[in-house]
Design goal:
The strands form three sheets. A six-stranded mixed β-sheet has the order 1-2-3-4-5-6, with helices on one face. With 213 residues, the protein is of the alpha/beta class. The protein has a single domain, classed as Metallo-beta-lactamase, Chain A (4-Layer Sandwich), CATH 3.60.15.10. The model has no long low-confidence stretch (mean pLDDT 95). It contains six helices and 14 strands. The protein binds zinc ion (ZN) (2 copies).
């Protein structure tokens, strides 16, 4: 069994996830910790549960999902993984923070490593199928775990909503295609963890989501 721990961080109410296996190996997805107390909350959870943090994974590289990337990767000395199509977004982090006048203390993010298309990602007893779901950002991915029946889907599909596509690199047609051709092909009872807001299921969004009729 994998454990999924959700944190909601920063002024954008972004959801950060730590996934851990029985071996205590764990990964962090979209570390959005911004304030010192949020960083402390993560560190305390990791140490209280004796977790071995192995890597930072990004569904995508918008700033609200990246405020803690530099801090976490340096503190735990671990690599950051993104899809190569999101490198432009990843590299624009400081510029976009400056644009919004958001003060950031850790200004440099490490060089990331890249997922391959339809890759499987494995660390100890944690494994994900990487689903390429562009649209909200050009290199957006979702992490699907079949055994435990969940997908961490970032800002692609939300409860009763979908990701915005008005940011640089966004594309509405691609987003709809990603949801229908990738996410909606998963089993109906798959639990969907979102980058903002509540969890949902594939079944619920297929029948109720007003943007996907
Ligand atoms: Zn986003
Ligand atoms: Zn977001």
């Amino acid at each position: 069994m994998l454990t999924v721990k959700k944190f909601t961080f920063n002024p954008f109410s972004e959801n950060t996830y730590i996934i851990s296996g029985e071996s205590k190996d764990s990964v962090i997805i979209d570390p959005g910790c911004f304030y010192d107390h949020e960083k402390k909350e993560l560190d305390t959870y990791i140490s209280n549960n004796n977790l071995q943090l192995k890597c930072v994974l990004h569904t995508h590289s918008h700033l609200d999902h990246m405020f803690g990337t530099s801090y976490i990767s340096k503190k735990y000395n671990i690599n950051v993984w993104i899809h190569s199509e999101d490198k432009i977004t990843y590299d624009s982090f400081q510029k976009v923070c400056d644009l919004y006048s958001i003060p950031i203390s850790n200004r440099s993010n490490p060089n990331p490593k890249y997922f391959s298309l339809n890759d499987t990602f494995q660390y100890g007893d944690i494994n994900f199928k990487i689903l390429f779901v562009p649209g909200h950002s050009p290199g957006h991915v979702a992490f699907y775990n079949k055994e435990n029946n969940f997908v961490i889907n970032g800002d692609c599909l939300f409860e009763n909503s979908i990701g915005r596509t008005d940011l640089p690199g966004g594309d509405h047609g691609s987003l709809i295609k990603s949801i229908k051709e990738k996410l909606f092909q998963l089993p109906e009872n798959t639990l969907v963890y979102c980058g903002h807001g509540n969890e949902t299921t594939i079944e619920k969004e297929k029948s109720e989501n007003p943007f996907l009729r």
